[in-house]
Design brief:
Length: about 80
């Protein structure tokens, strides 16, 4: 008799959670989820707007990038 009583009342955890979910909690919970999604989207957008500077490793800071060669033999 004990096993029959246990079999009648066994339910999955998911079924218990679905049945116990309160409707008054769903609206504030949806608001919190929306706020989290908007915050994440704003953070990604703000990061995308920032400038990204790659440091030049091994390049002397004051060295010219182009060497200018003057040709004194040409006439204008």
């Amino acid at each position: 008799m004990n096993t029959m009583k246990n079999n009648q009342h066994e339910e999955s955890t998911y079924a218990l959670l679905i049945r116990s979910q309160a409707e008054e909690r769903s609206i504030p919970e949806a608001g919190v989820y929306l706020l989290l999604i908007l915050t994440m989207a704003f953070s990604v957008w703000q990061s995308a707007q920032q400038r990204f500077v790659v440091p030049r490793i091994g390049v002397v800071q004051n060295a010219p990038m182009v060497q200018v060669v003057s040709d004194s033999t040409s006439s204008a």
